[in-house]
Write a structure and sequence with these properties.
Strand content: 25-35%
Largest sheet: 2 strands, antiparallel
Radius of gyration: 15 Å
Shape: globular
Strand order of the largest sheet: 1-4
Length: about 100
């Protein structure tokens, strides 16, 4: 199926995108509702059900399933083109533009 927008997320996409999800929280990493991606925008999202997201004062580790390729140029390329940027949102329905943590 199509996994390219909010509302079309599924757990199969989570398995394709992420190799491992870990947390030191007493309940472990919360079970995602699903995941979706926009390859052209380099956006890969994990969506949680309400009240089942990331908890405060907890550590999370995410292993992304990627294939690295050689980049032409020197190391300064990575200064302006980060490999990954993680943004945590509180509510992607009511407050899409409000990032809790970047």
């Amino acid at each position: 199926g199509t996994r390219n927008s909010l509302g079309k997320e599924d757990q199969v996409a989570c398995g394709m995108l992420f190799r491992e999800l870990w947390s030191n929280h007493q309940n472990g990493f919360p079970v995602p509702k699903g995941c979706f991606y926009l390859h052209w925008d380099k956006s890969y999202a994990i969506v949680f059900d309400p009240q089942n997201g990331l908890a405060e004062s907890s550590e999370y580790q995410i292993v992304i399933n990627v294939e690295m390729r050689a980049v032409f140029g020197d190391a300064s390329y990575w200064i302006t083109h980060p490999v990954v940027r993680v943004i945590s949102f509180d509510d992607v329905v009511l407050r899409k533009e409000f990032a809790v943590e970047v």
